[in-house]
């Protein structure tokens, strides 16, 4: 995730086309992932 400022989160699509998020700590390490996937993204 070049150019990102940490901490931050990223939204991605899974294989079924649903969205999930990953939260990254200040050192860039992924520390949390959503336990559910969603049909829409929060980004506009």
From TrEMBL:
InterPro entries, per this entry? DUF1508, YegP-like_sf
Q: Where in this chain does the record put each DUF1508 domain?
A: 14-42
What is the organism field in this record? Answer: Polaromonas aquatica
What is the name of the protein in this document?
DUF1508 domain-containing protein
Q: Where are the transmembrane segments?
A: none
């Amino acid at each position: 995730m070049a150019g990102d400022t940490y901490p931050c989160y990223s939204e991605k699509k899974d294989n079924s086309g649903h969205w999930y998020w990953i939260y990254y700590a200040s050192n860039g390490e992924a520390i949390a992932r959503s336990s559910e996937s969603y049909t829409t993204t929060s980004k506009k």
